[in-house]
Specification:
mainly alpha, Secreted protein, signal
Length: about 150
């Protein structure tokens, strides 16, 4: 093989590798959009149920979306999931039934410290950062995937 053929062959291999890696860049976004489309029916079902535990039921769907999320929105999903988990953990550690828990009339077994942790976790879940992150996720799903993402 002549020396002039080796670099050209190497150039072809590099070009093919670059094309393959560039084509692979679309896969995470496509996979995420497929997951958004697949999960939208479940989110609609959860939202339509009127269940007081809808947010906790949606957590499974959100986790699936987060698992397939492209890097540019992974932090938003992590924030939403972390805040849902924190509220669920606070309720669980207090032994409080999430469906029946009333912050205005907490169960007798939930002491003041546990009530404060539950209240703080609930406030953190509706914090401006989380609301903004969820809005960004909904807008991204609509703009990039063409699918609404609402609970």
């Amino acid at each position: 093989m002549s020396p002039s053929r080796a670099p050209r062959g190497l150039g072809v291999l590099l070009a093919l590798a670059l094309a393959a890696s560039t084509a692979g860049c679309a896969d995470p976004q496509e996979r995420y959009c497929d997951t958004v489309a697949d999960q939208q029916d479940r989110l609609s079902e959860i939202a339509g149920s009127g269940d007081a535990l809808a947010l906790f039921e949606a957590r499974e769907v959100y986790a699936a979306l987060a698992a397939d999320a492209p890097d540019d929105i992974a932090d938003e999903w992590r924030l939403v999931l972390d805040r849902i988990d924190a509220l669920e953990r606070a309720l669980d550690e207090a032994g409080a039934d999430p469906e029946a828990y009333d912050p205005e009339d907490p169960p007798a077994g939930v002491d003041a410290r546990e009530q404060a942790r539950i209240r703080q976790a609930a406030e953190d879940l509706v914090d401006l950062d989380v609301v903004s992150a969820m809005g960004d996720l909904e807008q991204q799903a609509l703009d990039v995937c063409g699918t609404p993402l609402r609970l």
